[in-house]
Hints:
Elements: H1 4-14, H2 17-24, H3 28-36, E1 59-64, H4 76-88, E2 92-95, H5 122-139, E3 145-149, H6 155-163, H7 170-181, E4 185-187, E5 193-195, E6 198-200, H8 217-224, E7 229-231, E8 237-243, E9 251-257, E10 282-287, E11 290-291
Amino acid sequence: MLEYENLIEAVKKHGGIKPTARALGVPPSTLRGCLKQKRGLPPPRKKKTVAIIRPDKTISVVYFTDAHNQPYLPVDRFVWLARLVNKVKPHYFVDGGDFDDFQSLCSHERDETWQGKFKPTLARDLEHSALARQAIQETLTVKPIKHVCLGNHEARIAKYENNNPAINGILSHAYAEILFRTGWHVTPFKKYLNISNVEFTHAAINGMGKEVGGKLSSSNIARDSVRDLVYGHTHKKDDAIYAKLGPDNRSTRALNGGCFLPNNYRMEYAENSQNVWNYGCWVLSIMDERIA
């Protein structure tokens, strides 16, 4: 509190009410009232402080991969998936690739063979792809950022166009239109999506441009990666952490999401596979640029 006598001296020093009030940081009317009533300047009021709540740095992700959508399979699993997203309310909703099987473009079973004649048409594959994506879109009541990391089965489109130049761009445009219409951001096959320095891709790619596979794929990927990586492709759930040299228990983690096929279902071409397939989806948390 500034005493009355000091106020008088301050006014003389600054040469008036207004410059004195400006120097003291008070309204001129307040200073005039104090001088008129011959009292000191009251102490400044404490400013109301607003508690600043730091935003939650944890990023939530609903992740699924290798759904292998086909005309012969119902789309109800995608409705249930969207209902889970509604419940979790994640920041991101990530499709790890091979959402569609595209059996119509499968080169392993030639069209002129007996089995090849039972493959669905490309038009039907595209129609069922749109149906499944639309089932998700119509069920969602929340708005996470949606990303798809295209897989090797979606890459069949580019491969087919490359072998048939007359239709180059037609099929890929039709598929891109389905993704655009249902609100998905796209990461091309063999490329990486980075979410808070955790990377997502359909399959980890080695120096020769090939998919990293084998029984020890997760350990090898965790060993060689510089960031945590979430991927699919093998249909086998796996989770490997590889320690690195240095302080702070540093390490990298490779997480394989298995597959999102109907439970215990295998495509006919994979019936004799000895690999164990794991079915479902994941709710992930990313904290401090790591899978938490």
